Amino acid sequence: AAVLNFDHVLSDVVKQRHQWFGTGKHLKSWTCTGDYELVLETSDRFYPLLQELTYIRPLRFASPSAFAMGLDSHPDLHNSCEPGKFGSGWEYLEDEVDCMGLSAPIGTGPLKFVSRLSNDDGSSELHLILFAGLY
C-alpha cells in the first residue's frame, strides 16, 4: 500500500509537479521488504525526510481501497492526483496522466521509524514499519 502511494506521486510523469518537495529530489527507490516494512533509499543524506513524510501533500499514505482501481491502480492510467486542479502550468499533465483522485480519506494506518543505514557512497536507507490499516 505504501509503495503504491510513492508510485503515484513520484511517477516519471508526475514527479516534476512536486519539485518543491525535497524528498522527491533525493529519493532513489522505495520498496517493501515484508508485509509491513517499507525501505526508502535516498541518493544522499537528506535530514528532513522523516519530517516531509508527515506532510499531507504530496505524499499521502492512502489505503489501496481509496485508489480508483485499488492495488491495481496504475500511476499513469489511474493516478491519485486530483483532476482539473493543476492550473495553467500543469495542463499538459492531464494529456499524459488520467487523474482519478482518491475516493475517500482512508489511510494505511500509523507508521514507525525503525532505523537508518548510511551507505559508503553517501546514500542512506530509511526503514519504516507500517502497522495494519484499513483496507
Task: Describe the protein in words.
This protein has 135 residues and is α+β, with helices and mostly antiparallel strands. Helices cover 16% and strands 20% of the residues. The chain is built from 4 helices and 4 strands; from the N terminus they run ααββααββ. The protein has a 4-stranded antiparallel sheet. The longest helix has 8 residues. The radius of gyration is 15 Å and the shape is globular.
Structural class: alpha+beta
Through-space gap between termini? 9 Å
Number of strands: 4
Mean pLDDT: 78
Strand order of the largest sheet: 1-2-4-3
User: Beta fraction of the residues?
Assistant: 15-25%
Per DSSP, the total helix count is: 4
Low-pLDDT parts are none
Range of helix content: 10-25%
User: What Rg, in angstroms, do the CA atoms define?
Assistant: 15 Å
